[in-house]
Design goal:
Keywords: Cell membrane, Membrane, Transmembrane, Transmembrane helix. By secondary structure, this protein is mainly α. 68% of the residues lie in helices and 2% in strands. It has 15 helices and 4 strands.
Length: 363
Amino acid sequence: MNSGAASARPAPLATPVAEPLAHGELPSWLQRLGRHIGVRHVVVLLALLLYPAVANSFFTFQIGAQSLALGLVALSLTFLGGYGGMVSLAQMTVAGLAGYLVAIFGSSSLAAISLGWPWWLAVAFAIVLATLFATAVGWLSVRTEGIYTIMITLAIGVAFFYLAQQNYTLFNGFQGFNKIFPPKVLGIDFRAATPFYYLTLACALAGYFFVKLLVRAPFGVALQGVRDNPRRMHSLGFNVTAHRVAAYAVAGLLAAVGGVLLVWYNNRISPGSMNTGAMINILVIAVLGGMNRPIGAFVGALVFVLLQNFAIDLVSRERFNLVIGGVFLAIVLFSPNGLVGIWTQLRARLGARKAIHTPRRQQ
């Protein structure tokens, strides 16, 4: 019996050995990335690179840099929701924690609290600890689904908000920290509008292409399978909980980098930077742009920042949330996939019309 059972077992699969690259051949991951880069990507990249040359310092810093930094935080929610099927309201909390840790480990207006570490060491510790915090949030919330996951992450965010607001020993209470400036590296002062814009652009591009590659990697494909049918993935031998927690860790990394950029953008951090309104704003940005494409996070952030800066010319600042709510409601009603979904529908219709009106070649 035992020998027959042993012989019936399938032989273990041999681990594939990567073949050496030929002369001039690119790695497989770079080849996959190149196949998904089209003309529109090159045009958008050139426009982003040349943007400071045609825009003044206000549009470069206030619109461009802020949109990219907020988009990076929203990208973490887009990755979780669009590819993992998990909606977390704690992404701005992760970003806020990273900003607080930069102020605590680095330099700020409060020398009695800030440790004065070099900027690169403070940023590294801030990103690592914020990512670990996001992983712990994921470990607590992945055992629930739907509204319960949203409520758990919201409760964690609100709890951390009140902790920061009431703790003066470590977080300086409701006042927070001021004078948290970007560093000077190799003679480049990132306090200036143009250098800081290119810094946020580099981080945003890195996060965007990282997500694009990750969702096509085995982990990303398995995560989408967990999103669609977790029971089937579990029956196939995949650890559903581990994949979800790992997704929270990846999203936490993106949010932490965005939080560092935001604290440098504002030159300060306080509990108001991660209150309930800020948490909801990230959700609004992600839904506005579209949860099914990584680029949607940055499109939504751009629309949100433009409305935030110019809607007050039409309505009072107190009614800004009414404008955001109206735009949000219109997008949800007419395009559940956000602004990127509208663009995709227009491209599909134009492609269909072109195919109809294009005459067939004579045989």
